[in-house]
Amino acid sequence: MGHEKDMEEKRYRIIGTAGHIDHGKTWLVKALTGTDTDRLAEEKRRGITIENGFAFLKFPDGREAGIIDVPGHEKFIKNMLAGAGGIDIAMVVIAADEGVMPQTREHLAILSLLGIRKGVIVLTKGDLEWKKGLDQEIREFAEGTFLENADVVVTSAVDGRGIEELRRVLWKLCTAGKTTENQNLSRKEDDSCTGRMGTKASAFRLPIDRVFSLKGFGTVVTGTLLDGSLGLNYDAMLYPRAERVKIRGIQVHGQEVSEAVPGQRVAVNLPGIGKEQISRGEILATAGSMEGTMIADVRLQLLKSGQRTLKSGTRVHLYHGAAELVCKIILFDREVLKPGEEAVVQLRMEQMTAMKAGDHFVIRFYSPVETIGGGVVLNPNGGKRKKRQNADAVVHCACTGKERKKAHASGKITEEICGNSVFLQLQELYLKSGFMPPLTDEVKKVFSGERDFSEVFFAMVRDGVLVRFDEKHYMHWEIRQKALDMAYLLYEEKGMIQTGEFRDRLGISRKCAIILLERFDRERITVMENGGRVLKRNLQQADRLRRGF
Asked: Are 118 and 149 a contacting pair, CB within 8 Å?
């Protein structure tokens, strides 16, 4: 407990800009920090921010806060979402001569959905003639939001007014209390799930928002460190693929460090892996601390300002951390969710991702693309459920883990074995290993001192908790199910299951992909045809098989 408190004391605050294009966000960051966050040639040429920019602000006592400058143009909203996930304090920028604009409103909605509860309103271009009725417009804009009682600071690029006052306001927000309201994720008390910053301090998590290579160093990834401390030679994995990587170097604000703390903008040097092998949206985290998932139970709220309803089965864009995914929304207790309504729903992703309970997310309509709502993750590894299932029961199970324990047992293995410590250890091992399970001989070595290993292992295989692929590889039935879900999805999309695409979707090696697909062949689920695989049974039969396994 003492270490977690110490970690919170060390934690940096992240200040994020928000607002309409050309309202002076980048100038404001430069005035505060001396850093021009527009680094791309196209940004210089066009005079707009495309990618997220980063700077750090030094306060009088020597402490620092990170600043993320996000794009304001509607076309770059997904980049804004990638940066907004790590923000603690919002600096909402409004040009005095133009007032509140559409992207200003959308940015505020996104910040609210992400659980941000502290901010300041900054009026730029204060030397120009103000828009008529601006004061009233701002009051109406902030009413009922976390900005309702926020400070309003007037600034100007011409004479530099307001910058020192803004520094004082930001310092006040950064130091107000030992914990931020954002850490509570604005969830209801009965959700009782661990929050973003409530994870164990020993487990770090870095959502990757940039990947590049440097001559003489190799691949570098960057992001905002959300949880735990990150140090050299830490045992790390890339998720959701669960691939082990080494950490050779760490930089914070351009300086080499031996350890980074939560809230800091971090650049990590990963040797032995090419930049083309890593994508924005992946997560660098402590080995074994996360799991890949394609189904999550969440609490979703639609924006009151929305004009469209959400039907069960609707495909939407999902923004979580730095990842952009496509998923289906499954409603439990109703057919339609209306603007302003809240419900426990299920997200069924079209590709693997990694989440934790307490994470925030935002959803946007698939076509036309517009922000419609967001919420908090309750259970990142949910199972398929029937419609009309009691939503309160879903929340309880998701937050207590009872449902997962039930799913792991699958109603097959005896109660005596289920409570056995070897069973629990084996189950955890195979769940964490995901689509790249350990060799059986290696598992036997790990449990060589356990007298009842053979009995428990045999029972798990006999009762279907572990699925045999060959004598060297066994996989947990939940992971096998996720692999089958992906095969089914590929067939739905393409009419064919190609080994290469199956491999890429799961983030595994070609060898592992072939082992999985050959298992489906032996089960007579798939069959080779025209250089790929098709479902041997019709879709309805295959779906029953998937749900009933």
From this structure: no
